[in-house]
Amino acid sequence: MISGDIKVDEGYVYLSFGKSAGSGKMPPNPLRLNLRIHADRRIFLVNELADMEFSADLTIVKEDPVTVLISGNLNVIKGTFLYLDRIFIIQEGSIIFSNEPEINPTLNLLGETVVNDTIFIDLHVTGNLKTPEIRLTSTPPLAEEDIISLLSFGKLLSEVPMTIKDINLMKTRALNLAEGLISKELQKRLRINELELRTGLAGENPRFSVGLYLSPRVYFKYAHSFEALEKDVYQVKYFIKPNMAIYGERDKEGEISVGIEARFRF
Fold it and tell me: Is the N-terminal amide bond of 140 cis, ω within 30° of 0?
């Protein structure tokens, strides 16, 4: 029997939505496990849709020759979710493992994006890893088909005749989606914590940004725009506690600011 507490400084989880991660079964062996795993932050999930950082409280138990059971939570610290080529900023959420033989955790994620500077759209991801369920709501309240139209075209459904401009917009969004998938694949391969790449082929400003931990407490982010009018963006965070950081940054206008960032769960 191997038992005890493990504190993880950094870890990567590669799970794809819409697929089971497989069973918790392994080739028969006499090994028994009772492990408690804890991480204050820096547990990263990166796939074709999500880019998130979690804290972790998990228990791994193996009481027979083949079955490994996982229970506990991954709780979101920060992250993004890509849906209809819109980046939703994760506001809160968790991935819950329920001691089942199949690795198919329950999802409970809430993300937000803004359309036309006035309409706030919430993305609710529930269900489980194998069969996720997505629901959209908005402020002010709109029908879901209007929300989908806003995300796709920036207009209500009743305002969307399929013009040449709309067709070009669809092409642009498809290209942006492809760029997003390329960024995530590079991020996974390079073990970078954040990576965004825009080529400019769709007509927008070409740019890239990258973020990574320089040490367990220091996080650095850099963004560069190939538009000469915009300054390079720098941000450094020093984590005093897992949920509190001192930061300094220079924005794209060249303005420098410092402050304290805190995260609370209610």
Answer: yes
The span from the CA of 107 to the CA of 127, in Å, is 6
- Domain membership of residue 218 (yes or no) is yes
pLDDT digits (tens, 9 = 90+) for 100-111: 877 888 999 999
Torsion, CA 83, CA 89, CA 92, CA 98, rounded to 10: 40
pLDDT tens column, 198-227: 544 444 566 667 777 777 778 888 787 766
Q: Which domain holds residue 246?
A: 179-266
Per the domain annotation, does 252 fall within a domain?
A: yes
The count of domains in the chain is 1
- Decide if 78 contacts 53 (C-beta within 8 A): yes
| Phi-psi map region of 80: left, alpha, beta (phi>0 left; psi -120 to 50 alpha) | beta
